[in-house]
Amino acid sequence: MAVSRRGFLTLLGAGGAGALAIPSFPSASWRGREASVDLAFQGQAQRRADRGLASQPGMIRLDSNENPVGPGERTLQAIRAHLGDSNRYPDLAEYDVIDAIAHLHNVVPENVILGCGSGELLRSAVQSFVATDKAYIGARPTFEAPGEFAKFIGSPVDPVPVDGTLGIDLDRMAAAAKGAGLVFFCNPNNPTSTVHSKSDATAFVETVNRSSPGTTILVDEAYCEYVSLAGYGTLIPLALTNPRVVVTRTFSKAFGMAGLRLGYMIGRPETLEQIKAWNLSSNVSQLTLQAAIAALNDPDHIASEVKRNREVKAYTRKFFADLGYEMSAGEANFMMVNIKRDSKAFKADLLKKGVAVGRQFQGLEGHMRLSFGTMSEMKKALPIIRQALRG
User: What is the third-level CATH fold of 46-69+301-390?
Assistant: First the structure.
């Protein structure tokens, strides 16, 4: 029987990533690193398989921190209006988007570069600053992609466990950063949905600068629009003056454009040129660029999305609080819930019941990452989750 690529990934998800035999690299340059390469590919395959299962018809998707509402109507209209430009390379539209982002943040275009999602920019930063003798430092858990790529290219990777509140331990991270090539500081942090104030984040950067002046700090602000913590603030102003700091943002979350793939990085021009050298040219599609221009000119849609997410978060947090479960701060469009059981098995059980939640994360095996869907989705999913918790 023929099996489609999507079907194969779904079968893989049901059976585990270990079912896929990933060939090791035979060349001498990769000798000794085969295990890291295999694990990186298996991790990617498992996540794709999970998404294959989550995307089955009728599934309530609370698994990938996606915006369940999607782009605004103005953005969708822009995509439709520019379908006829799909035969053209996107070079000119790139300048328009960079100009729009620069205007939004009161910077000059030379302070901005674009990526195919922020993921491309994270990978390029790793490629720029880490090496076999320059470690990559991140939290555990945090967004895995840059750490996985650092392992892939042979860099030492030294994750720092989150603290008792699931927040990034900035003191331990700063101590670990001495001599490192790159520090990845996800604020708010994915998957824990905890956040640090601007003053604490700035003090962290200053500490690393003093103790390890050659270390670059990448601040990932993918979920910044959702933060409600008093005292939170972007580190973009610091990135404009400090060549050892860069900040990434994305259109994948509040803007609802995860499938369109667009991110950007802000920093000093000389730092961005070093990173941009590792990017693909024409790395963002024509239609995505037109969608971004429209989205940036539709602040009401973002305000509406933030309000919707805040209401759903409050409803969801009350649900778990009433049941007596502890949660992380939830300063994003998701949170972690201490379900006091193996979250991998719990996820598999919920999939059978039509609800997809986040994957298991190392160090927090008893926690479930739950993305906030629409209010309608949460009202359907939460009773199912309650039943599974009692089972």
Answer: Aspartate Aminotransferase, domain 1 (3.90.1150)
* DSSP for 242-283, written as a single string: -TTEEEEEESSSTT--TTT--EEEE--HHHHHHHHTTSPTT-
Contact assessment for residue 336 and residue 193, using Cβ atoms and an 8 Å cutoff: yes
User: For residue 220, which phi and psi values (nearest 5 degrees)?
Assistant: -95, 115
- What's the rounded Cα separation, in Å, for the pair 36 and 148? 8
Report which of 169, 240, 233 is spatially closest to residue 207, judged by C-alpha positions. 169
pTM above 0.85, yes or no: yes
d(CA 121, CA 123): 5
* Cβ count near 22 (within 10 Å): 16
Give the separation between CA 68 and CA 21, rounded to whole angstroms. 34
Instruction: Judge whether 3 and 49 are in contact, CB under 8 Å.
Output: no
Q: Does domain 73-296 have CATH number 1.10.260.40?
A: no
Q: Which run of H or E residues covers position 352?
A: helix 343-352
Domain boundaries, the chain: 1-45, 46-69+301-390, 73-296
User: What is the rounded CA–CA span in Å between residue 203 and residue 207?
Assistant: 6
Say if residue 92 is exposed, middle or buried (CB neighbours under 10 Å; 0-12, 13-18, 19+): exposed
The model's pLDDT over 91-112, given as tens digits with 9 standing for 90+, comes to: 899 999 999 999 999 999 999 9
Q: List pLDDT tens digits, range 32-45.
A: 554 544 555 555 66
CB atoms within 10 A of CB 63: 26
Neighbour count for residue 304 (Cβ, 10 Å): 13
